[in-house]
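PROTEIN DATA CARD
Card holder: ADP-ribosylation factor-related protein 1
Chain length: 144
Origin: Apis cerana
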Amino acid sequence: MYTLLHGLYKYLVQKDEYFILILGLDNAGKTTYLEAAKTKFTKNYKGMNPSKITTTVGLNIGKIDIAGVRFNFWDLGGQEELRSLWDKYYAESHAVIYIVDSSDREKIPESKETFGKVGKKYMYYKLYILFLFFIKQIFIFNYR
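Structure generated from the sequence above:
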């Protein structure tokens, strides 16, 4: 009887939950993307002013609930010395969003190489991957 009640309680209260990594090189716009998503999908959330967003050292966490599903976003720092930390998050993730700032042409070859490494992890862990390629200035302007 307890098992039946516990199962019913979980069915009524517990949400499906997914963990999504947001990756890309430093200064690509990962945190800006996360703030824009939280602003769009979280009621009464004003969001951070894009001019006040600083370089991520470590991890930013964002949670968005849509239609009874919770999406947990892990925005990881993109500096070269922090990328080794990404490996610790793949196994717990369901998907990866990889962001490239197309206006920073000097970093595109490095971003392509890094994306290739992420792609290998994606294949190993069988993750879904979304590749976002945007001009950060236009994105920030539209986000405000």
